[in-house]
Amino acid sequence: MSQWGREMYVTPGIVVDSELITTDLVEINLGIRILLGSSFYDDWAGREIFVKEDPLGNPIDERHPWNQTTLPHPQKRDFSGKYTWVVSPRWFDRRTGKNLALDSGGGPLARFWVTRSPARWTLVG
């Protein structure tokens, strides 16, 4: 999967603060997390983990979408607490230990930026 992703016409990748972190589809997938933020769902952390590892043997986090359990908890909106049915997808940056809110769609400019050869990366500003 890693090689297949790199051979695509438009390369997948993660860019953080103008730095290309990875173009590895496996690493990108392993970093995806679903956080609850201000959603009406109850937390599933600490419950049964459905997928403990991917087909390559890499460990899968309990917050990965493959392990997400939908536990709805409807209630009155409270803008200082819970007020939405939307969850917060994030990407876990192993370098910093932070869950980052990244634009996963990227759009045409971002996709071509990732596809460019990293050796030619420079910021235009």
Note down, in words, how this protein is organized.
This protein has 125 residues and is α+β, with helices and mostly antiparallel strands. Helix content is 16%, strand content 16%. It has three helices and five strands. It has helices spanning 2-6, 25-30, 107-115, and strands spanning 14-16, 19-22, 32-35, 88-93, 98-100. A three-stranded antiparallel beta sheet has the order 3-4-5. Strands 1-2 form a two-stranded antiparallel ribbon. A hairpin with a 2-residue loop joins strand 1 and strand 2 (19-22). The longest helix is centred in the C-terminal third of the chain and has 9 residues, at 107-115. The radius of gyration is 17 Å and the shape is globular. The mean pLDDT is 84.
Mean residue pLDDT: 84
Can you give the helix content as a percent range? Answer: 10-25%
Radius of gyration: 17 Å
Low-confidence stretches: none
Distance between the termini: 35 Å
What is the number of E strands?
5
Largest beta-sheet characterization: 3 strands, antiparallel
Q: Which percent band covers the strand fraction? A: 15-25%
Strand order, biggest sheet?
3-4-5
Structural class: alpha+beta
Identify the quaternary structure here: single chain
Question: What is the H/E order?
Answer: HEEHEEEH
Number of helices: 3
Shape: globular
